[in-house]
Q: What sequence folds into this?
């Protein structure tokens, strides 16, 4: 049977490890800089351009995912790895932002005719931008701590 002092010591060690882990996680998720925000706008435009190229190349409409737009090193482009964006952006995380891609429902011909993409800071702070775009290629933004939507103002 474990005595209470050893149990308390073990619990204390676990708590220290948890606190250090939380502190390290907070340090690695820093708020985006102005440069990161400008980069996120560029990434959203890159995704829109890649979607147009994908739709023009494959008879599937828009892509089913960001990974389908990404490259696979050493392999020829296909509909599941089109090589239109790099693997970093295809992973959905880049320069302090998380990119979420949602493909629309396939039509009767099996084509995807709509999509949405949001980019949110990994760590939000006052003034940080969240972004939205869709198949219209209009880029929208908000500085509120939420995902941008089609109802937010366009970036001019």
A:
């Amino acid at each position: 049977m474990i005595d209470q002092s050893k149990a308390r010591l073990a619990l204390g060690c676990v708590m220290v490890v948890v606190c250090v882990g939380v502190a390290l996680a907070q340090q690695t998720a820093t708020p985006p800089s102005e440069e990161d925000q400008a980069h996120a706008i560029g990434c959203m435009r890159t995704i829109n351009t890649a979607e147009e190229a994908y739709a023009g190349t494959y008879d599937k409409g828009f892509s089913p995912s960001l990974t389908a737009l990404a490259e696979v090193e050493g392999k020829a482009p296909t509909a599941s790895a089109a090589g239109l964006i790099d693997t970093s952006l295809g992973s959905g995380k880049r320069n302090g932002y998380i990119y979420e891609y949602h493909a629309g429902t396939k039509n009767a011909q099996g084509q995807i005719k709509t999509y949405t993409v949001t980019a949110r800071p990994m760590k939000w702070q006052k003034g940080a931008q969240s972004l939205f775009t869709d198949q219209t290629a209009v880029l929208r933004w908000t500085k509120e701590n939420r995902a941008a939507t089609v109802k937010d103002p366009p970036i001019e």
Q: What stands out?
A: Helices lie at 4-28, 34-57, 66-69, 87-90. Confidence is low (pLDDT under 50) at residues 4-27.
